[in-house]
Amino acid sequence: MAQEGNTNQSKTKPFWRAIDKALAQEDGKRLRAAAEKLLDLAASGEQWAVKELADRMDGKAAQVIAGDSDNPLTVINKVERVIVNS
Question: Do residues 41 and 30 touch, judged by C-beta distance below 8 A?
Fold first, then answer.
């Protein structure tokens, strides 16, 4: 039977764990204060705050992958079978 979820997260994200713990203190007051500050900054016209808020609310915009006339995109589909004798 396979394991559920990503068990590697706790090993690889110590900063995330520390922030998560700090935000949970005082019944989430710090998280609410951070959210309020972000909203205040966005309302006052801070562009990075507006962008962060939009990204969190609507999701980040998809990145366009496109070529141009000098460097057009080329799609290569290749299937290769390799037999290795051991």
Answer: no
- Residue-wise pLDDT for 26-63, tens only, equals 888 888 998 999 999 999 999 999 999 999 898 888 88
Gap between the terminal Cα atoms of the chain: 31
Q: How far is CA 28 from CA 19, 24, 81, in A?
A: 12, 5, 55
pTM listed for this prediction: 0.53
User: Is residue 36 a contact partner of residue 43, using CB atoms and an 8 Å limit?
Assistant: no
pLDDT digits (tens, 9 = 90+) for 21-35: 888 888 888 889 989
Alpha carbon 50 to chain centroid distance? 17
C-alpha Rg value of the chain to the nearest Å: 23
